[in-house]
Write a structure and sequence with these properties.
alpha/beta; Rossmann fold; Luciferase, domain 3; GMP Synthetase, Chain A, domain 3; 3 domains; 8-stranded mixed β-sheet; 7-stranded mixed β-sheet; about 20% strand; binds 5'-O-[(S)-butoxy(hydroxy)phosphoryl]adenosine
């Protein structure tokens, strides 16, 4: 029987949302109580005013004290097949030792610490160690390039970086420390005083460069550290972390989350959306480098004291059944993944999951992009054996926690719909003018503040206000289109801004365009999202070459690789089209809608506003000749 089986939680939250959130907050451990639940002066929210709370103490000490000390916190599997299990008590000791190690390097409350690590237990340990001493972590996904590291390190002025010598992906070693070294060659990163290196690779180190003034091995740093470290009594509104995400400009934005409200939001949503129980084995397949890993590997599940699986590598390594083997081996009961992965599994064929025993599963989750009904039904039938409910959870880096989702047992699902707002969340669909859309399409909007909402963009107040709070008065604009059906259910339609959600990852068209024009052959570039069987949306780039440059036959591949090298593999365009002109309006604005029509092979939309309508017709012919 699920925790919530009726409307009671919704009714309670509707009647008094602040009382509902306060009740959720009471379940956590506070060092000092709050005075007011909320102080709200749009767009500035203070939740649990004057309260003091430590995030790592709520994830670890609380469970160690309450009898869960020997419960497995993390059951980890490395890609090569190595295994480790850490109990809550192990985690507390490791986190405390590492927190003391950070302190010994001079890391203090409020300092920024960049984390660039593979999916090993030391990644959540590093995050929780920062939280323990009140340092602000900024986790940078280990697939990002040295240039992307430079942007993020310099924006946050990180004092230390925590990395590893290597990580494993599809049998290859990612040279993480060497990439950090590259980034640190750039003078914009001179805030960095220390590099802590976790030794992941047990084979001989080869030519790993070492700067003994700056670099220290993780194992040397913690060797003589005490495993007692008092959790810093951080204020509810002290910054817990910064996480960079893409927006509509070329520069990623550092989304700022604070401590008390974020903990309440992730704790409550993890508990009710995943209906967590004592005997659950929870597996969220995200990387800790994304918000999903922050909220539903580290803070939400650990605040609930659940046992979880953490896996380092690729789903198809060494074979396409790796995930199903892991579920079978550890008896995973809750599985949370992205539609792009589900579509890949579908394509790989049912024989892989069919050959494994998945009967331990009781609940499935989806996140990151709209799930198409076909993938939803396959997930339900082939992975869930028709008996596990699916929670399709809509949220964002900025919202910190799940916002629109079914509650298993309480909400009847429909394939492709994220259904209803979580209790205490006021979601709506509005017209651009702010009229409520009862049924039909429009823009997704959140009316009232919620505990885990972003508190700002690091160092950029103006962008914070203009991006999220300027569309309608006192209302948050997430950047997604959505529709409501006759039952009031939400159907998320995707981004309405210049952000592409590709394979569940977010990338700005401008970021890819600037990476392209950075190449000496390129004069101008325009990037659009196009439909893709597995990725949902893929990146297509139209480029104009500089006059001096010949279009040699390798150029498309060279440009794809250039983008991957400048940003990271997630930003690599699926298609590059060398064009002789781009469709522009008379005022010089590139018409991306028409580029999308060309790249997807659709009939052309309205071209009457173009300065030169023949441009797009010519593009279409060029493109068809390439595709054909
Ligand atoms: C964007 C946020 C939320 C963690 C992972 C992505 C899209 C997210 C869904 C969903 C339809 C979804 C939205 C959103 N999105 N979940 N269940 N259905 N779309 O976090 O990188 O901040 O991206 O992902 O477009 O705005 P993110």
């Amino acid at each position: 029987m699920a925790r919530v089986v009726d409307e009671s939680l919704y009714e309670k939250a509707d009647a008094d949302p602040l009382a509902f959130w306060a009740e959720m907050a009471q379940e956590l451990e506070w060092i000092a109580p709050w005075t007011d639940v909320l102080r709200w002066n749009t767009p500035d929210a203070e939740w649990f005013v004057d309260g003091k709370i430590n995030a790592s103490a709520n994830c670890l000490d609380r469970h160690v004290a309450s009898g869960l000390r020997n419960r497995a916190a993390i059951i980890w599997e490395g890609e090569p097949g190595d295994e480790r299990t850490l109990t809550y008590w192990d985690m507390l000791r490791e986190v405390s030792k590492f927190a003391n190690g950070l302190k010994s390097l001079g890391v203090r409350k409020g300092d920024r610490v960049a984390i660039y690590m593979p999916m090993v237990p030391e990644l959540p340990i590093a995050m929780l160690a920062c939280a323990r001493i009140g340092a602000i972590h900024s986790v940078i996904f280990a697939g990002f390039s040295a240039d992307s590291l430079v942007d993020r390190i310099s924006d946050a002025k990180a004092k230390a970086i925590i990395t590893a010598d290597a990580g494993w992906r599809r049998g290859n070693k990612l040279p993480l420390k060497a990439i950090v070294d590259d980034a640190l060659d750039n003078p914009d990163t001179n805030s960095v005083e220390h590099v802590v290196v976790y030794q992941r690779d047990t084979t001989p180190l080869g030519d790993l460069a070492w700067n003994s003034d700056r670099d220290v091995w993780w194992h040397d740093l913690v060797a003589n550290m005490s495993f007692h470290c008092r959790p810093e009594p951080t204020n509810a509104e002290d910054v817990l972390f910064i996480l960079y995400t893409s927006g509509t400009t070329g520069k990623p934005k550092g989304i700022v989350h604070t401590t008390g409200g974020y903990m309440v939001g992730t704790y409550a949503t993890a508990k009710y959306v995943f209906d967590l129980r004592d005997d659950d084995v929870f597996w969220c397949t995200a990387d800790c480098g994304w918000v999903t890993g922050h909220s539903y590997i580290v803070y939400g599940p650990m605040a609930n004291g659940v046992t979880q699986i953490m896996y380092e590598g690729a789903p198809d390594w060494p074979k396409r059944d790796r995930f199903w083997r892991i579920i079978e081996k550890y008896g995973v009961s809750i599985f949370y993944t992205a539609p792009t992965a589900i579509r890949a599994f579908m394509k790989w064929g049912n024989e892989w999951p069919d050959a494994r025993d998945l009967s331990s599963l009781r609940l499935l989750g989806s996140v990151g992009e709209p799930i198409n009904p076909e993938a939803w039904v396959w997930y339900h039938e082939v992975i869930g054996g028709r008996s596990s409910p699916i929670v399709d959870t809509w949220w964002q880096t900025e919202t910190g926690a799940i916002m629109i989702t079914p509650l298993p047992g309480a909400v009847t699902t429909k394939p492709g719909s994220a259904t209803r707002a979580f209790p205490g969340i006021q979601a709506e669909v509005l017209t651009p003018d702010g009229e409520t859309v009862e049924t039909g399409g429009g823009l997704l909007a959140i009316r009232d503040p919620w505990p885990s909402m972003l508190r700002g963009i690091w160092g950029d107040r103006e962008r914070f206000v203009s991006t999220y709070w300027s569309k309608w008065p006192h209302t948050y604009f997430p950047g997604d289109g959505a529709k409501r059906d006759d039952d009031g259910y939400f159907w998320i339609l995707g981004r309405v801004d210049d952000v592409i959600n590709t394979a569940g990852h977010r990338i700005g068209t401008m970021e890819v365009e600037s990476a392209l024009v950075d190449h000496p052959a390129v004069a101008e570039a325009a990037v659009v999202g196009i439909e893709h069987e597995i990725k949902g949306i893929a990146i297509a780039a139209f480029v104009l070459l500089r006059e001096a440059h010949e279009h040699d036959e390798d150029l498309e591949q060279t440009l794809k690789d250039h983008v991957a090298q400048k940003i990271g593999a997630i930003a690599k365009p699926e298609k590059v089209l060398i064009a002789v002109d781009l469709p522009k309006t008379r005022s010089g604005k590139i018409m991306r809608r028409l580029l999308r029509d060309v790249a997807e092979g659709h009939a052309l939309g309205d071209t009457t506003t173009l300065a030169d309508p023949s441009v797009v017709a010519r593009l279409k012919t060029e493109y068809e000749s390439i595709e054909g």
